[in-house]
Specification:
mainly alpha, about 200 residues, Ferritin
Length: about 200
Protein backbone atom coordinates (compact mmCIF):
# COMPACT_ATOMS: atom_id res chain seq x y z
CA UNK A 1 0.00 0.00 0.00
CA UNK A 2 1.39 3.43 -0.90
CA UNK A 3 2.16 6.23 1.50
CA UNK A 4 -0.47 8.93 2.17
CA UNK A 5 -0.71 11.10 -0.92
CA UNK A 6 0.98 8.47 -3.08
CA UNK A 7 -0.44 7.98 -6.58
CA UNK A 8 -0.02 4.19 -6.14
CA UNK A 9 -2.59 4.00 -3.32
CA UNK A 10 -5.80 2.01 -4.08
CA UNK A 11 -7.81 4.00 -1.53
CA UNK A 12 -9.36 7.34 -2.47
CA UNK A 13 -12.50 9.38 -1.92
CA UNK A 14 -14.02 8.69 -5.33
CA UNK A 15 -17.35 6.77 -5.06
CA UNK A 16 -17.52 3.59 -7.12
CA UNK A 17 -20.78 3.74 -9.06
CA UNK A 18 -22.74 1.18 -11.13
CA UNK A 19 -21.40 -1.87 -9.33
CA UNK A 20 -22.87 -5.30 -10.06
CA UNK A 21 -21.96 -8.79 -8.91
CA UNK A 22 -23.52 -12.20 -8.47
CA UNK A 23 -25.93 -13.02 -5.64
CA UNK A 24 -24.34 -13.98 -2.36
CA UNK A 25 -27.29 -16.32 -1.58
CA UNK A 26 -29.95 -17.53 -4.03
CA UNK A 27 -33.63 -17.20 -3.14
CA UNK A 28 -35.15 -20.44 -1.83
CA UNK A 29 -32.03 -21.53 0.04
CA UNK A 30 -30.94 -21.36 3.69
CA UNK A 31 -27.52 -20.96 5.24
CA UNK A 32 -26.12 -24.34 6.17
CA UNK A 33 -24.30 -23.75 9.42
CA UNK A 34 -26.52 -21.56 11.58
CA UNK A 35 -26.51 -22.85 15.20
CA UNK A 36 -30.30 -22.81 15.62
CA UNK A 37 -30.87 -26.47 16.51
CA UNK A 38 -33.21 -26.70 13.51
CA UNK A 39 -32.32 -29.03 10.66
CA UNK A 40 -31.92 -27.58 7.18
CA UNK A 41 -35.08 -29.26 5.77
CA UNK A 42 -37.12 -27.69 8.59
CA UNK A 43 -35.73 -24.25 7.90
CA UNK A 44 -36.30 -24.66 4.16
CA UNK A 45 -39.95 -25.55 4.70
CA UNK A 46 -40.54 -22.79 7.23
CA UNK A 47 -38.90 -20.07 5.12
CA UNK A 48 -40.93 -21.13 2.08
CA UNK A 49 -44.19 -20.88 4.01
CA UNK A 50 -43.13 -17.66 5.70
CA UNK A 51 -42.34 -16.09 2.32
CA UNK A 52 -45.87 -16.93 1.17
CA UNK A 53 -47.20 -15.31 4.32
CA UNK A 54 -44.90 -12.34 3.72
CA UNK A 55 -46.18 -11.83 0.17
CA UNK A 56 -49.79 -11.94 1.35
CA UNK A 57 -49.10 -9.63 4.29
CA UNK A 58 -47.36 -7.07 2.07
CA UNK A 59 -50.35 -7.20 -0.27
CA UNK A 60 -52.79 -6.72 2.60
CA UNK A 61 -50.71 -3.83 3.91
CA UNK A 62 -50.79 -2.12 0.51
CA UNK A 63 -54.52 -2.82 0.16
CA UNK A 64 -55.01 -0.88 3.39
CA UNK A 65 -53.06 2.08 2.01
CA UNK A 66 -55.07 2.00 -1.22
CA UNK A 67 -58.27 2.01 0.82
CA UNK A 68 -56.93 4.82 3.03
CA UNK A 69 -56.29 7.03 0.01
CA UNK A 70 -59.43 6.21 -1.97
CA UNK A 71 -62.17 5.84 0.67
CA UNK A 72 -65.24 8.04 0.17
CA UNK A 73 -68.61 8.75 1.71
CA UNK A 74 -70.13 9.59 5.08
CA UNK A 75 -67.67 7.37 6.96
CA UNK A 76 -64.64 8.85 5.21
CA UNK A 77 -62.96 10.35 8.26
CA UNK A 78 -63.14 7.39 10.62
CA UNK A 79 -62.26 4.83 7.94
CA UNK A 80 -59.46 7.03 6.59
CA UNK A 81 -57.89 6.93 10.06
CA UNK A 82 -58.69 3.26 10.72
CA UNK A 83 -57.22 2.08 7.43
CA UNK A 84 -54.01 3.98 8.10
CA UNK A 85 -53.76 2.54 11.62
CA UNK A 86 -54.16 -0.98 10.29
CA UNK A 87 -51.63 -0.20 7.54
CA UNK A 88 -49.04 0.73 10.18
CA UNK A 89 -49.72 -2.43 12.14
CA UNK A 90 -49.39 -4.57 9.02
CA UNK A 91 -46.12 -2.81 8.18
CA UNK A 92 -44.72 -3.95 11.53
CA UNK A 93 -45.81 -7.51 10.76
CA UNK A 94 -44.12 -7.37 7.35
CA UNK A 95 -40.83 -6.49 9.03
CA UNK A 96 -41.21 -9.20 11.68
CA UNK A 97 -41.96 -11.91 9.11
CA UNK A 98 -39.09 -10.87 6.84
CA UNK A 99 -36.65 -10.79 9.74
CA UNK A 100 -37.78 -14.26 10.86
CA UNK A 101 -37.02 -15.60 7.38
CA UNK A 102 -33.56 -14.08 7.50
CA UNK A 103 -33.00 -15.33 11.06
CA UNK A 104 -33.74 -18.88 9.84
CA UNK A 105 -31.02 -18.44 7.23
CA UNK A 106 -33.37 -17.84 4.31
CA UNK A 107 -33.92 -14.99 1.86
CA UNK A 108 -37.05 -12.89 2.22
CA UNK A 109 -39.11 -11.57 -0.66
CA UNK A 110 -38.79 -7.83 -1.01
CA UNK A 111 -39.65 -6.40 -4.43
CA UNK A 112 -43.17 -5.53 -5.59
CA UNK A 113 -42.94 -7.63 -8.75
CA UNK A 114 -41.96 -10.73 -6.78
CA UNK A 115 -44.74 -10.10 -4.27
CA UNK A 116 -47.31 -9.70 -7.07
CA UNK A 117 -46.25 -13.04 -8.58
CA UNK A 118 -46.50 -14.82 -5.22
CA UNK A 119 -49.51 -13.44 -3.35
CA UNK A 120 -52.83 -15.28 -3.40
CA UNK A 121 -54.87 -12.20 -2.51
CA UNK A 122 -57.12 -11.00 -5.34
CA UNK A 123 -55.84 -7.92 -7.11
CA UNK A 124 -58.22 -4.94 -6.83
CA UNK A 125 -58.88 -2.52 -9.71
CA UNK A 126 -56.82 0.66 -9.90
CA UNK A 127 -59.89 2.85 -9.50
CA UNK A 128 -61.98 3.67 -6.43
CA UNK A 129 -64.58 1.30 -5.05
CA UNK A 130 -67.50 1.69 -2.68
CA UNK A 131 -66.85 1.34 1.04
CA UNK A 132 -68.63 -2.03 1.44
CA UNK A 133 -66.47 -3.45 -1.34
CA UNK A 134 -63.28 -2.05 0.21
CA UNK A 135 -64.20 -3.57 3.55
CA UNK A 136 -65.11 -6.91 1.99
CA UNK A 137 -61.81 -7.09 0.11
CA UNK A 138 -59.88 -6.43 3.30
CA UNK A 139 -61.85 -9.02 5.27
CA UNK A 140 -61.37 -11.62 2.52
CA UNK A 141 -57.62 -10.97 2.60
CA UNK A 142 -57.55 -11.32 6.37
CA UNK A 143 -59.49 -14.58 6.15
CA UNK A 144 -56.94 -16.01 3.71
CA UNK A 145 -54.07 -15.03 6.01
CA UNK A 146 -55.79 -16.34 9.14
CA UNK A 147 -56.37 -19.71 7.47
CA UNK A 148 -52.76 -19.83 6.32
CA UNK A 149 -51.40 -18.86 9.74
CA UNK A 150 -53.35 -21.56 11.57
CA UNK A 151 -51.90 -24.20 9.23
CA UNK A 152 -48.39 -22.77 9.52
CA UNK A 153 -48.59 -22.56 13.32
CA UNK A 154 -49.54 -26.23 13.64
CA UNK A 155 -46.79 -27.28 11.22
CA UNK A 156 -44.17 -25.21 13.05
CA UNK A 157 -45.02 -26.99 16.31
CA UNK A 158 -44.77 -30.38 14.58
CA UNK A 159 -41.30 -29.47 13.32
CA UNK A 160 -40.13 -27.97 16.62
CA UNK A 161 -39.87 -24.41 15.26
CA UNK A 162 -41.31 -22.67 18.30
CA UNK A 163 -39.97 -19.27 17.25
CA UNK A 164 -42.00 -19.27 14.06
CA UNK A 165 -45.06 -20.56 15.91
CA UNK A 166 -44.77 -17.74 18.44
CA UNK A 167 -44.44 -15.11 15.72
CA UNK A 168 -47.38 -16.20 13.61
CA UNK A 169 -49.72 -16.79 16.56
CA UNK A 170 -48.79 -13.95 18.92
CA UNK A 171 -48.32 -11.28 16.26
CA UNK A 172 -49.82 -12.17 12.88
CA UNK A 173 -52.89 -14.15 13.95
CA UNK A 174 -53.93 -11.91 16.84
CA UNK A 175 -53.49 -8.75 14.77
CA UNK A 176 -55.53 -10.16 11.89
CA UNK A 177 -58.31 -11.35 14.19
CA UNK A 178 -58.56 -7.94 15.84
CA UNK A 179 -58.48 -6.02 12.57
CA UNK A 180 -61.11 -8.33 11.08
CA UNK A 181 -63.39 -7.54 14.00
CA UNK A 182 -62.98 -3.78 13.50
CA UNK A 183 -63.74 -4.08 9.78
CA UNK A 184 -66.69 -6.43 10.21
CA UNK A 185 -68.50 -4.10 12.59
CA UNK A 186 -68.63 -1.49 9.81
CA UNK A 187 -70.74 -3.86 7.72
CA UNK A 188 -73.50 -4.24 10.32
CA UNK A 189 -76.63 -2.57 8.96
CA UNK A 190 -77.93 -0.61 11.96
CA UNK A 191 -79.80 2.73 11.99
CA UNK A 192 -77.63 5.80 12.46
CA UNK A 193 -80.18 8.26 13.86
CA UNK A 194 -83.49 6.61 14.76
CA UNK A 195 -83.73 3.14 16.23
CA UNK A 196 -86.16 0.71 14.65
CA UNK A 197 -89.31 0.29 16.73
CA UNK A 198 -90.38 -3.30 17.48
CA UNK A 199 -93.16 -4.60 15.27
CA UNK A 200 -96.66 -4.63 16.76
CA UNK A 201 -97.40 -8.01 18.32
CA UNK A 202 -93.76 -9.01 18.49
CA UNK A 203 -94.03 -9.65 22.22
CA UNK A 204 -91.59 -6.92 23.17
CA UNK A 205 -92.23 -5.20 26.49
Amino acid sequence: MGKPGSTTSNINAQPRFHQRAGEIQPYGTVNHALPLELEEPVRLEMTEQLNQLLADTITLRDLYKKSHWQVAGATFYQLHLLFDKHYSEQSELVDSIAERIQALGGVSLAMAADVAETTRIERPPRGREEVPVQLSRLIDAHQLIIRQVRILARRAIQLGDHGTNDLVVSEVLRTSELQTWFLSEHLVNVPLVKAEEPAVGSGAA
